[in-house]
Specification:
This protein is about 50% helix and about 10% strand. The protein contains 26 helices and 13 strands. β6 and β7 form a beta hairpin.
């Protein structure tokens, strides 16, 4: 039997083919290595000073820049035609707006105070159309004034100055904060130089598209007030529609994958009520309750109580579940500490089990009453459809059309649309792994106490189904299936989204092809994937930063080791153990955890090393306190002997008639007993004098 072993990484693949004998004699080799090798390839990443970046991200950036330039060129071509049609330009040639001697910034400011000529108006409007400002693609319109990024923050700061100067052009040419330097002229005067455009990393000159559109309308109003025959309403409308037109954002509905259980249905929105309830019940059915030595799962009655009034709160903690079920304090949740019950959500440690349902309930019940919410909760398909529209559509007009197609009351539709425009529904993002139709079909089984796999089987679903499994289902098994998979290209972008993982698997398939051509088809293939294959660039960068931080800590530790010990750590495993001992000693501030005795640096180098840290501390503590224990024992033995001698001497000199004390001995006047004990302590035995 031949076995092919593969070890795949993000930039290399190791392989080996071994042949295992079916029958072998005693003492003979059980198999042999047929072949082995390594295939190295370049990952789709580039490492620079700023860190590792995907090449696809760079290509996407350049592609976006080319798209911006192309669309700007098309926009300016149309505008030159509009200007020529309305008599502002003699022709619509490419260089028709390249007129020397005009400062477009000053013309834009002057257009509010005097009549502009045809050429001046064309230059001013063309300048605005070419640099038409920033417009956020976020669903919420309020995001334009938010400070979630450098661009938005700088735009908000610039917008505050518009209240004083009126228009963006006046703000930039009159506000002293945009002056970068003063240049001396030959006649002795000075010229103030302004920077009117952004630089790399500096967005202080950012302008919002809405403000520029307001400036255009202000110019047209001023020109008409000044009796200009060129500033017609038709020109204003044509210019605004062309210069500030933006294509609606592409909805992500087309990018959502199909459900593995219902092939004709799209996967559910992650924040849809049915999918959230499905996840919640799936998690509850895996919970184990511990009562002493007994363990059990939740009963169907308890599951019904826990799922009742679902969506009343976004977060459902273990303490909420305990309260709903009325569990005794002695009953605990397996794997959940008592102090974590109020903090941890049942579904996710850092998430919220019913975030989407709770948000919809708050909006609908808050504006239209609890009865309206109850009516929709009894028809979950409507709420699920609304959640899908909000999650997978980014343009407000598209969201409005999608909500119109849902059988929902117009008043509730307006409430949801307003909430989307204000950014209150931005949490509706992402898709689940099954459709809402499949989730609603599985929920009854989950309420019966069935686990996910059994609830799927109850309605005829195969819980092991996945798009990956379907992609490699070629209708055959064994060597025939392998041959078909290698002939067909089945690793697509839809199957594996990560460019790094997709590249690694494609190279692995190529390597398998090459090995089979040389060595023949194996009977088995064993595959081991590196952890890096499934991690993103950010996750791998975080790991690398952690490794670098630990290396810096070790370097500082070695320097401190030399200062304290007087020599560097030894080589090999012995040196690693010495460095570990020294690090523990340093963390303990040089003192024993058990006796608080000081441990000298030389002592930790001589102590036997234990694998367990607690055992190591105890070992150091024993050695550090051995001398102290010996001194204590000697001190106790000495004083026991002194006490016996003092007692015997007291009995011999005790005067008759003395009254007994509470302890049974007799008190004598004059303190003679203290004198006898004092004399005994002044003459200690030579053998014990050093121990004191």
């Amino acid at each position: 039997m031949r076995v092919l072993g593969l070890d795949g990484g993000i930039a290399s693949i190791g392989w080996a083919m071994i042949e295992i004998a079916d029958e072998f004699e005693e003492g003979a080799a059980k198999g042999k290595i047929v072949g082995a090798g390594t295939w190295m390839f370049d990952p789709p990443e580039d490492k620079g000073q700023a860190g590792t970046k995907l090449r696809s991200a760079e290509r996407r950036m350049f592609r976006g820049q080319r798209r911006v330039i192309r669309r700007r060129r098309q926009r300016m071509n149309v505008l030159r035609g509009i200007f020529a049609q309305h008599g502002l330009l003699a022709s619509s040639d490419r260089d028709a707006l390249k007129i020397p001697g005009f400062d477009p910034w000053k013309l834009r400011a002057a257009g509010l105070e005097r009549v502009l000529t045809a050429t001046e108006l064309a230059v001013a409007l063309g300048h605005i159309a070419r640099h038409r400002g920033f417009k956020s693609n976020a669903k919420g319109a309020a995001a334009n004034a938010d400070d979630r990024g450098k661009m938005l923050k700088a735009s908000a700061e610039t917008r505050e100055k518009l209240a004083k100067f009126g228009t963006p052009a006046r703000t930039l040419i009159e506000d002293d904060s945009f002056v970068v330097r003063e240049t001396a002229r030959r006649d002795g005067s000075s010229e103030r130089v302004r920077r009117l455009r952004n630089r790399d990393g500096d967005y202080s000159r950012s302008l919002l598209r809405d403000d520029l559109e307001a400036e255009v309308r202000a110019i047209f109003r001023a020109q008409r007030r000044l009796q200009s025959a060129l500033a017609t309403a038709d020109l204003e409308k044509a210019f605004v529609e062309t210069a500030f037109f933006q294509r609606p954002l592409q909805d992500s509905e087309a990018m959502i994958g199909l459900c593995p259980f219902e092939p004709t249905q799209k996967r559910a929105a992650r924040r849809s009520p049915s999918f959230e309830l499905f996840r919640f019940l799936s998690r509850l059915n895996t919970l184990t309750l511990i009562n002493g030595r007994e363990t059990r799962r939740l009963t169907p009655e308890e599951l019904g109580k826990a799922a009742s009034d679902f969506g009343a709160t976004a977060k459902i903690s273990f303490s909420n579940v305990r309260k709903k079920l009325g569990l005794a304090p002695a009953i605990t949740f397996d794997g959940v500490r008592a102090d974590e019950e109020a903090k941890r959500d049942v579904v996710a440690r850092s998430g919220e089990a019913a975030a989407g349902t709770a948000r919809l309930r708050k909006l609908i019940a808050g504006h239209h009453g609890e009865i309206a919410w109850r009516a929709l909760a009894d028809r979950p398909a409507i709420l699920d459809s609304a959640a899908e529209v909000i999650s997978f559509r980014d343009d407000l007009d598209s969201i409005a059309k999608g909500l119109d197609a849902v059988a929902i009351e117009p008043a509730i539709r307006d409430t949801l649309l307003k909430a989307a425009s204000e950014g209150d529904l931005d949490l509706f993002t992402g898709a689940g792994h099954i459709s809402v139709k499949a989730a609603r079909a599985i929920i009854p089984g989950l309420l019966q106490g069935l686990t996910y796999d059994k609830a799927c089987a109850l309605v005829g679903f195969d819980h092991t189904a996945s798009r990956e499994r379907q992609a490699f289902d070629v209708g055959a098994t064994g060597k025939e299936a392998l041959s078909r998979i290698l002939k067909e290209e089945r690793i697509s972008r839809d199957l594996i989204g990560s460019p790094t993982a997709r590249k690694a698997l494609i190279e692995m398939v190529k390597q398998v092809k090459a090995v089979i051509e040389e060595q023949g088809l194996p009977d088995r293939i064993h595959v081991e994937l590196a952890r890096d294959v499934g991690k993103s660039i950010e996750e791998r960068a975080e790991i690398e930063r952690g490794i670098e931080k630990r290396n810096r800590q070790k370097d500082k530790l070695r320097q401190l080791f030399v200062e304290k010990i007087g020599r560097p750590p030894q080589d090999g495993q012995r040196g690693a153990e010495e460095l570990l001992r020294f690090e523990l000693w340093e963390q303990q501030n040089g003192r024993c955890l058990y006796s608080d005795e000081y441990i000298s640096p030389a002592q930790i180098m001589c102590s036997p090393m234990s694998r367990h840290r607690g055992a190591y501390h105890r070992e150091i503590g024993r050695e550090a306190t051995a001398e102290r224990d010996l001194r204590r024992r000697q001190w106790e033995a000495y004083h026991r002997e002194i006490g016996r001698e003092a007692t015997a001497e007291a009995r011999r000199f005790r005067p008759r008639g003395s009254k007994p004390s509470a302890c049974g001995c007799r008190r004598a006047s004059g303190g003679w007993l203290r004198e006898i004990i004092g004399l005994a302590l002044e003459t200690p035995k030579a053998a014990n004098s050093e121990s004191l």
